[in-house]
Amino acid sequence: MYKKIILSIFLVLGFIPILVNASVGSLVKVGNKYYDSLAEAIANASENDVISLISDVKLDDSIEINKKVNINLNGNDITAPEKVFLVEGGELNLTGKGTIKETNPNYGAIMVKGSTDPNDEEYSVVNVDKDITLEGWSGIFITHNNSKSYGAKVNFGGKINAVNDTSGGTGIGIYVNGNIKDPENSPVVNILDGAKITSTGNGLYFAGYGEYNINEADISGSESGIGIKSGILNIDGATVTGTGPDATPTPGYNDGIKASGTAIQIESNDGYAGEIELNIDDGRFISNNSNVIYEYIGKGNHSQVIALDISGGTFESKKGKDVIRITDSLKQFHSNFISGGQYSSNPEEYLKSGYAAGLSNGKYEVIQSTILGVFSPEGNSNNAFGIIIITLISIISLGLLVYFNKTKILNIIRN
């Protein structure tokens, strides 16, 4: 009997630590263990553990992530005065629903720092799920590490609200620092379907070299939807909007980028890596007050754009400005780069050979015109005669098809 009583006491005592740790003050849990601090939970979690928030977490300082960390916000928020998370040599996976926020906006909700070793692939990785909101001067800030940032990677599917910093400087949704210049193992940013980014400044600003892939996301900024000075930008299905006033011509700037009001702003600047490539397959590109795609030389004598291709999408300047405005330097090497899409102004001078732009319902639609090219070799919109010829050919072809099918049927009946 005494043995049973002693055993019962030990069993009860064995559960006491769990009951105490699950007190009202607990902020997070990892499995069956409860912690009063997020930093402590991260320190004790293994790479396969999921840290679940029980309540909001208010940090006095940022938390450095140097291993694989999985956090489920579980309907709660994490705040810090600035730079809530610094990811360097680790992986941060954010799921659930909630907000990561700078209360004194200065850097960003998440800062990412790559490696100085070009062989370190996926050295610093951030994955943000669809119901996560980031708020700060930037949502994600990819910074340099002695002018390097090898192996930095971001997969973003959530929401960003980029706001002015404490000194009044306008925000940037996702920012890549301009000191990053090496194309080898450079940062990769994937903006996924359903992501939404709004900013008081630039929706996205890619100053440093990297590969930037944007799918069916919604991106808007007052100063520009997207500003780029370096790297490869691929867009397929996104909506990109410049909401602010027309600020063109825009002066060059070596410590950021000035406002333009455009949807996509390309600054050629010798102070940056340059080597800019822009590929647009589809999407909606809107400027409320200015040009839609605007390229200019901020510093230097020639364009830094080495490749430009537009194969689809809708491009609209709501104030009737030219949709595309680029430098003579760029025109010398990449004057024919459009093979599809709809435009609020005539894009004929930029069409690839074998394409034409016809006015329909107030928009210029670009179509392939291989046959029209016989009559309009440069693919311009003066193709009425060619259209008549195509129509006649189509009617004749249809008549022949009906005739031969009818003849074939009669032969079958006769036989």
Please explain how this structure is put together.
The model is unreliable at 1-24, 371-387, 400-404 and 406-415 (pLDDT under 50). By secondary structure, this protein is an alpha/beta fold. The protein has four helices and 33 strands. The protein has a 23-stranded mixed β-sheet that branches.
Please tag this protein with its features:
disordered C terminus, disordered N terminus, 10-stranded parallel sheet, 415 residues, elongated, alpha/beta, 33 strands
A few lines on this structure:
With 415 residues, the protein is an alpha/beta fold. The protein is 15% helix and 39% strand. The chain has 4 helices and 33 strands.
Please give the structural blueprint.
Elements: H1 2-21, E1 28-30, E2 33-35, H2 38-44, E3 50-53, E4 57-58, E5 63-65, E6 68-72, E7 78-80, E8 85-87, E9 91-95, E10 98-102, E11 110-113, E12 124-128, E13 132-136, E14 138-143, E15 152-156, E16 159-162, E17 172-176, E18 188-191, E19 196-199, E20 202-206, E21 211-214, E22 218-221, E23 224-228, E24 232-242, E25 262-269, E26 276-287, E27 293-299, E28 305-310, E29 314-317, E30 324-325, H3 328-333, E31 341-343, E32 355-360, E33 363-368, H4 384-414
Parallel strand pairs: 3-6, 4-7, 5-8, 6-9, 7-10, 8-11, 9-12, 10-13, 11-14, 12-15, 13-16, 14-17, 15-18, 16-19, 17-20, 18-21, 19-22, 20-23, 21-24, 22-24, 23-25, 24-26, 25-27, 26-28, 26-29, 27-30, 29-31
Antiparallel strand pairs: 1-2, 1-3, 31-33, 32-33
